[in-house]
Specification:
- The chain is mainly alpha-helical.
- 82% of the residues lie in helices and 0% in strands.
- Helix 1 packs antiparallel against helix 2, helix 1 packs antiparallel against helix 5 and helix 2 packs antiparallel against helix 3.
């Protein structure tokens, strides 16, 4: 694939991620709270817990840590799973009527399709994680550029080694807590509640 085309696709992927995984679910959550749509609100709150891995991913990538490429793929896998996993919420949402349900359903399908497409497009980046030579290539470095651009907006001193190391440390702390929470869900919560979101 030509380098410039790949660059365009990488930046398009990040823009789509902002739309589908940040702006739309935030707007839907506010709308659901206003409409007192409990099932949709609950599902979106669970979504934000899961999608917080994307923020960790951005902070890892903005500091140049290739682990962010793995966590990014994991987030893309977990997001559609969590959108469709909860049987009780799916039933309650199915019983609802109105524009909120329609827009929510459209977003849920669009986000699922986006995540599948993004996984297929990013699976090749795993070579950037396990090979230092590949990681240093221009093609691999492309995947870090949008996160670095984001970091330069919110952390003007990102170029400082001290600041970069501090942000990387915070990202890893966040990843550890995320991993512990996820492990708790798999070992305790899932065995007791199954696909019921009650008490999640």
């Amino acid at each position: 694939m030509p380098f410039e085309l790949l660059r365009s696709l990488v930046w398009m992927d990040y823009r789509l991620a902002v739309v589908f995984t940040v702006l739309c679910p935030l707007g839907l959550l506010i709308w659901a709270f206003v409409k007192n749509a409990q099932a949709i609100s609950t599902l979106l709150i669970i979504y934000w817990r899961v999608a917080s891995l994307l923020l960790i991913t951005v902070y890892l990538l903005m500091t140049g840590n290739a682990v962010g490429l793995i966590t990014g793929l994991m987030a893309l896998l977990l997001i559609p799973l969590t959108l469709w996993f909860w049987a009780d919420l799916n039933e309650e949402i199915e019983d609802q009527r109105g524009w909120l349900k329609l827009i929510f359903a459209a977003w849920r399908w669009a986000t699922t399709l986006y995540c599948i497409g993004a996984i297929l497009g990013q699976i090749s980046t795993l070579s950037c994680v396990f090979s230092a030579v590949a990681r240093a290539s221009d093609r691999c470095q492309l995947w870090f550029q949008p996160a670095i651009g984001f970091g330069s907006i919110f952390h003007s001193d990102l170029g400082s080694t001290t600041v970069s190391n501090r942000l990387e440390f915070v990202a890893f702390i966040g990843l550890v807590f995320y991993g512990l929470y996820f492990l708790n869900f798999l070992t305790l919560r899932l065995s007791k509640k199954g696909r019921s979101a009650t008490g999640f």
